[in-house]
Amino acid sequence: MKRLSEERTKLVFEKLKNYIGDNVKLLIDRPDGIYCFREKKERVYYVSEKILSLANTVGPDNLISLGTCFGKFTKSGKFRLHITSLHYLAPYAQYKIWLKPSAEQQFLYGHHVTKAGLGRITENTPQHQGVVVFSMNDLPLGFGVAAKSTADCKFADPMVTVCFHQADVGEYIRSEDTLL
After folding, report:
1. Shared domain check, 59 and 30
2. Is CB count within 10 Å lower at the N or C end of the chain?
3. Domain assignment of residue 14, yes or no
4. Domain range for 84
5. What is the spatial distance between Cα 53 and Cα 58, in angstroms, rounded to a whole number?
6. Adjacent-strand bridge partners of 71
7. Does one domain contain both 8 and 57?
8. Residue 5 CA: distances (Å) to CA of 47, 60, 83
9. Is 27 buried (19+), middle (13-18) or exposed (0-12) by CB count in 10 A?
10. What's the rounded Cα separation, in Å, for the pair 68 and 65?
11. Which residues on neighbouring strands pair with residue 120, listed in sequence order?
């Protein structure tokens, strides 16, 4: 596991800031210890410094992964969040969208959220802002990008897309064949 370069750290933090704002600091300095980001084979892992120090006893060729995979760098150099980071992003999300029960399944199949499926949205959500998508029972389902601001959603047609799909918990099932 190697440290992220300054440029890559900036890309990771910009992406995280799009979803959780200044709460990125809370990911690093947690009550249970200090956490950090490390990279291995274009993937970024979120790991406790205690565990990282223990992992230094394992040879780099024998270490496959460590901690939670937060995302990966694409071939074009952009950073993409993985759904495995949802558990850590959801409590700190600044902007949230709640789906009606009838729209949850469509979102979990990888479709965008329409106004008809929108249960509620955080006040003052700007357009093109990263949002965490929840069920009406406050269960995190995934994350996306707001296609419309909160003000625009109020007057939008029911079939207009209000949130672009980025990732959802249904990806585990959909990608099951490709993982084997």
Report:
1. yes
2. C
3. yes
4. 2-88
5. 10
6. 44, 81
7. yes
8. 17, 18, 23
9. buried
10. 8
11. 98
Judgement on whether residues 6 and 83 belong to the same structural domain of the protein: yes
Q: Among residues 66, 88, 110, which one ends one of the domains?
A: 88
Q: Which residues contact 66 (CB under 8 A, 6 or more apart)?
A: 1, 38, 40, 45, 47, 51, 52, 55
The structure tokens listed for 156 are 């939008």
Q: Where are the alpha helices (DSSP H) in 35-170?
A: 49-55, 86-89, 101-108, 150-154
Decide if 141 contacts 96 (C-beta within 8 A). Answer: no
User: Encoding tokens for residue 175?
Assistant: 């990608």
Q: What is the pLDDT of residues 135-165, one digit of tens each?
A: 999 999 999 999 999 999 888 899 999 999 9
Q: Residue 179: inside a domain, yes or no?
A: no
CB 121 within 8 A of CB 115: no
- pTM, whole model, 2 decimals? 0.85
Reported as a single tens digit per residue, the pLDDT across 7-66 is: 999 999 999 999 998 889 998 888 888 899 999 889 999 999 888 888 888 887 888 878
Closest CA to 144 of 73, 68, 55, 81: 81
Write down which residue in 54, 88, 122 finishes a domain. 88
Enclosing H/E stretch for 174: helix 171-174
Beta strands 96-99 and 130-135: pairing type?
A: parallel
